[in-house]
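testing teh design pipeline on a random one, pls ignore if ur not involved
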């Protein structure tokens, strides 16, 4: 989850501590990302394969 937070931070969607946890801030950032890009295939706030693929396509590897 560390890389997830780092990638979301690159987009300005996550501003919390980069600690590798999946708390409410991280979930909210995932929801915002999904809504912003129109990601389908995962429930809102769930970091599944479609969301991961979309996030990796628009961010650089930390």
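output:
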């Amino acid at each position: 989850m560390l890389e997830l937070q780092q990638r979301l931070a690159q987009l300005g969607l996550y501003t919390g501590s980069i600690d590798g946890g999946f708390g409410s801030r991280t979930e909210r950032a995932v929801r915002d990302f999904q809504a912003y890009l129109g990601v389908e295939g995962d429930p809102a706030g769930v970091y599944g394969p479609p969301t991961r693929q979309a996030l990796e396509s628009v961010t650089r590897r930390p």
